[in-house]
Specification:
Strand order of the largest sheet: 1-2
Number of strands: 2
Number of helices: 5
Strand content: 5-15%
Largest sheet: 2 strands, antiparallel
Number of domains: 1
Order of helices and strands: HHEEHHH
Oligomer: single chain
Length: 126
């Protein structure tokens, strides 16, 4: 698999999170080359959310435009980026609810069937 390259221009928090995501997905053997685009979208949306949130924290929730206070325009940017990031996170099983569904489709080590146990240990028990 071609290693996903984390964008160098994203916020440190986003980069750290993406590294954790990659590590988790590799550990569970769920990562493939086709996931690189989704990982890029996750990284970019998370970065946008963080940057917008930082600017909102700096400026405040309301800003003055022509002497009128309005909601900061970056609130919508942050919300939209958050929604998109969560959708992508869900696809990768990175939310608590999504993980429960993902665990059901990840092949687990199966117990031997009664037939397999019989073949391995043919002693008949009655």
């Amino acid at each position: 698999m071609k290693q996903f390259q984390i964008p160098k221009d994203i916020e440190r928090e986003a980069s750290k999170y993406i590294k954790e995501v990659i590590s988790l997905l590799e550990e569970k053997e769920l990562l493939a080359n086709v996931d690189n685009a989704a990982l890029m979208m996750l990284a970019r949306n998370l970065d946008m959310f963080i940057k917008a949130s930082k600017q909102i924290n700096e400026d405040g929730l309301m800003i003055a435009v022509k002497d009128v206070l309005i909601a900061h325009p970056l609130i919508k940017v942050a919300r939209d980026a958050q929604v998109q990031a969560v959708k992508i996170m869900t696809e990768f099983g990175l939310t608590a609810k999504a993980r429960t569904k993902l665990e059901k489709i990840i092949p687990q080590k199966e117990e031997d069937s009664p037939f397999d146990r019989f073949i391995k240990d043919p002693k008949e028990t009655r």
